[in-house]
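Need tokens for this chain, all 233 residues.
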Amino acid sequence: MSMNGNDYYDLDAILSEEEFIPLVTQCEFSYMAHLDPDAPAEKNQHYLANHSKLKLPLWAIESWAMLGYCRCQLPRVYTNKARERFLLSNEHDTSSSLQTLPRPDYFRTGKRIADLMHQTYLKQKTSSASNQQFIDYLKSSSENLQQSLLASFVGGRFRQWLDWSWTAVGQDVSQFILKLTELEKSLFVTSVTAWSHHNQSAHKMYGRGKRRMKNSQASDTSNSDTNKRNRMS
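Here are the structure tokens for all 233 residues:
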């Protein structure tokens, strides 16, 4: 089960934890040699050596990272250069098409990785055996990743689908929704619903106002005609 998920069978949470995380082991693991494809094929070699460099799914290394059995690094798509490149393209994209994400669960997976690094940082900073340089790396990586994910999420892509949600009431948006992540789909539907309710409320309010104005004008006209007839008589 995900350490952050509330539902064991949440498919979106499961898919968001399939990202392979680069890591370096900090101890030997018995009968784990098969995890390292570059390990020497020696007879009766069952140990995964210390300082082995691997890539394992996020869900598989959460406990290892928290216990200090491995040191995790950021996947290539979430490194500083990759995030800066995506953020710049997100801000300067003036096309009408929705910008393509580096991966379908980019934001949700990124948040999972940032949370893991932050929790690992909190765990490791109290350990006397921890490396201070690695602790500083965990702290800066988690903070920078969270900030860049937030900046990217509320950038040009956010403005595009938010604009669509305000102008798509009563229109077929099925093809557009296919380009959104599950999180964006949920927010898109909420925005469309809120905008629809706003329009209905505004229509009712202004509709009543117009009827009152018409009734008032009709009453004034009737009073004016009555006064004219009285003066003529």
